[in-house]
Design a protein that fits this description.
20% helix; 2 domains
């Protein structure tokens, strides 16, 4: 009986050590990490595949030939290292250069993205996603600079959108804010399809073949006075009046007559001069007029046990109770045997 108890105790010790190992191996980080490309991972895609929510993917200077897929992810920031110039060029021109699908709280910051040239391709393609921010990027030489579909709460800010067939395409999406972008030399500047309740203001529309194309969409094209709307290079009007109704004497850098896109889309405060944008890549929170763009909230790192580890610990407790029970039963059995032998001897 003693040998049996010793064997059980050894098994129990082994299981205890195994449970502790599982606990150590299943440490889960809840805070940000910095993943460096190509130091930690040779490609941007590999860094994304190995990232946790809240991680920053920092890219060193260079040209990266990839088609990047961000799918079912939450809370990533993808940007160059401070002072580095990063170009991402499509490996397959028939696919988006960066595709963001079924994701939330993703920031793409300060990249030059090109080569998504095929029909329905784009520099950045956003599908069924929310809280996506495309900031301070150069998007040129694509079928579309940014293609947004079935998404909401998207911010497109401080980008240079140049020489694409379509600067932006917005389909079946809402709460898209397009602010302080240079939208220049595209076939169509912005194309809205069944996409209403979006806001477009403080952008420069220059030398596009068609600035706006809108189908079954009603959107806001200006902020409140005196912030104003957009600059349209094909529109000239007087700037002699000021005020909410543009009926008070004095110029205010807002043209006195609204810019009419169609009957339901009107920029009521078109700007007299193009805007000069200023935003720094190093600023963690970029405030552009009344709209604030904030990177994902990062929590402090802490350690938690995985589900597997919890299961192992529960099993360990059960085994301890079982062994304790067996020891008690064995002791009682030994007492009964001794009592029986004692009666027979009498």
């Amino acid at each position: 009986m003693k040998s049996t108890i010793v064997a059980l105790l050894l098994i129990l010790l082994i299981l205890l050590l195994e449970g502790l190992c599982i606990a150590v191996l299943h440490v889960k980080s809840l805070g940000k990490r910095f993943l460096y490309v190509p130091d930690d991972y040779p490609s941007i895609q590999l860094a994304i595949d190995n990232a946790n929510p809240g991680d920053f993917i920092l890219i060193r200077e260079g040209v990266y030939v990839e088609n990047i897929i961000i799918e079912r992810r939450n809370g990533l920031v993808i940007k160059p290292l401070e002072g580095n110039s990063v170009v991402i060029k499509a490996k397959d021109e028939g696919r988006p250069v960066i595709s963001i699908q079924f994701s939330k709280n993703i920031t793409v910051f300060g990249l030059t993205i090109t080569g998504g040239k095929a029909y329905r391709s784009a520099a950045v393609y956003i599908l069924n996603s929310s809280e996506i921010q495309i900031q301070k990027c150069v998007l040129y030489g694509n079928n579309a600079g940014i293609w947004i579909t079935y998404s909401q709460n998207i911010t497109v800010a401080n980008n240079n959108v140049l020489e694409n067939s379509n600067g932006l395409v917005v389909q079946y999406s809402r709460n898209v804010v397009v602010i302080e972008n240079n939208i220049v030399l595209n076939g169509v500047g912005i194309d809205f399809v069944d996409a209403s309740n979006n806001m477009i203001y403080h952008n420069n529309f220059i030398n596009n073949k068609q600035h706006v194309r809108s189908h079954k969409s009603v959107n806001a094209w200006n902020a409140s006075y005196p912030l104003g709307g957009n600059y349209w290079d094909n529109y000239t009007a007087e700037d002699l009046k000021r005020g909410v109704h543009q009926n008070e004497p004095g110029a205010d850098s807002i043209l006195d007559t609204p810019y009419k896109i169609d009957d339901t889309n009107i920029d009521y405060y078109p700007l007299a001069q193009p805007l000069a944008f200023q935003a720094t890549l190093s600023t963690p929170i970029i405030t552009i007029l009344t709209h604030t763009i904030t990177p994902p909230t990062i929590t402090l790192t802490q350690t938690t046990l995985s589900d597997e580890c919890r299961a192992s610990l529960i099993l360990l407790v059960v085994l301890v109770l079982l062994v304790t029970y067996l020891i008690i039963v064995a002791q009682k059995t030994r007492k009964r045997v001794r009592a029986t032998k004692s009666r027979k001897a009498d």
